[in-house]
Fold:
Amino acid sequence: MIFPAGLYVLKFFLPLIVVGFGGFLLLAVGLFHRKGPAYAVITFIALALSIASILYLGGPRTVLGGAMVYNSFDSYFAAILIISSMFVVFPALKNIRERWDVFYSLLLFVTLGMIVASYSMNLVVMFVAFEAVSIGTYIMAGFHKTKRTLEASAKYFFTGAVSTSFIVLGLSYFYQATSTFDLDAVSTVSAVPMLISLAFLVIGFGFKLAIFPMHQWAIDTYDGSENSVSALLSTGSKIVAFMIMLKLFVVGFPTMGDQVFLLFTILAIFTMVYGNFAALSEMRLKRLLAYSSVAQAGYLILVFSAVAYGQYGNASVDYINAAVGAGMFYSLVYIFMKGGAFLSMNSIRKENPRIEDISGLAKQSPVLALSLSILLLALAGIPLTGGFTAKAFLFLALIQVKLWWVAVIAILNSAISVFYYLRVIAYMYRKEPTEEGIFSTDGTVTAPVVFAAVITVITGVYFTLFYLVLPFAASLVGA
Structure:
């Protein structure tokens, strides 16, 4: 044992210590060093060490009186959230031109909040950690201080303040209904306050996850932010909200399965339909990807429909476990699909690119065009990609709990999305460039997109990776 018995508990804080120390180290280095790549390297090393420390944690174990719970479910999400931050470290160098110490320390502190949220089953701790993530990303969204980024940050901030108010109200009613903030300590439940809590929490976290009709801020913020920040907001920030909602609605509301099912099924259908149909007519690339992100949120929250329907319908625990596992696997694939798609926008030397601006990319950079095409096809759910595998297991989970009609609606929406993704691909391969020198296709642009495409193909071809995730889901469901 590395730690003495009295300090044994410290090992469970290693990921937090590593990331937090890295953030303060960057601020200290910023006092005398002004070159960006050094900050990126330090940040990447700190994040890599934090993942290594997660592997050392072991578990399951509870510390701080139940406020922090360490099991495979928590470690899985902590790891993929760290990966979502690692994914944007070097691409951010493309457009961040000054105050790298502040930007990268913010990235580390945001990641710190994600890790805390991942390992907590106490609603107060989760709320504080989630707000730390939100505050950090408010600043990152407006980091360039241009009109577009400041507008994006302002909309994000004011919407976030409203959603926080709903979350606080929801948590207060949850405590009134259960007399506890610990999700795994819920025993007796008062029905009326619990129902009010459900409504407030769905609205509050619905804003964070960009669920229809609480989505409009995401369209403007993803569009107006710097590309690496857009990638982080649409992946890490969204997945941490999804992870908290998994804990909250799967563990905290087990006696309200019928209400949870009805609410999330309606929201999922409207979110999928709106996101896909809005993207069909959108001609600005980043806004198209933002509407696509809304539709993807609709697919993700189908997990809650499947779990809730299975809970009050007395479905097999294995089926409920499969639904949670499908959401976890989808989260991993989504980070690379959506993150890579947003980072590909660095290839266009325009602040607000339109679809026609990507014309001729295949002639300028065949590798980048192919990689982006793979990511778009994965988002559409085309076979041999991780997007197809993730959706297939999610739809199968719906069918297993006898929600075949919801699965049919989701499949039809996935088919609709093919049209606007193929339109972008058609412009890359069949059109001539609109301007000479419009593309920037150096290694800093191409490498992360190619890497994301490779991971997406691997998770699609080796679909058995999903079965490695299932035991992690069982630690939440209790199978």
